[in-house]
Sequence to fold (130 residues):
Amino acid sequence: MAVQNPYAQYSNNKIMTASPAELTLMLYEGAIKFNNIAEVAIEEKDVPKAHNNIVKTQNIISYLRNTLDMRYSVAQDFERIYSYLDRRLVEANIHKDAEILKEVNDHLRAVRDNWKEVMRVNREKGSANG
Fold:
């Protein structure tokens, strides 16, 4: 029997045991990571690597958009944010513009940080009620 890479096994277990909120946080982290890779690739003139990582970021944004529950008014706000980020990623990919990617990353970090704060507040509420 082949021995699985311990890091891959750990990552898989982390995903399989994560709450929906934690999975969303992982998606934000992944989008930021791929966007960072694309930004560096543009600076290094590695067009295929930049393109592939921008597309990965777009795929995450698309997934987040497709999973919005539009019954909640806040979903409209996220829809506008995700739509804007997607448009900017298309522009960045067409023009291979690292400045646009920096802007996108600023927005992604802000959304991620807000998400982390919501998770923290909900944990505190949960422990106070438990």
About this structure: The first helix runs from residue 6 to 16.
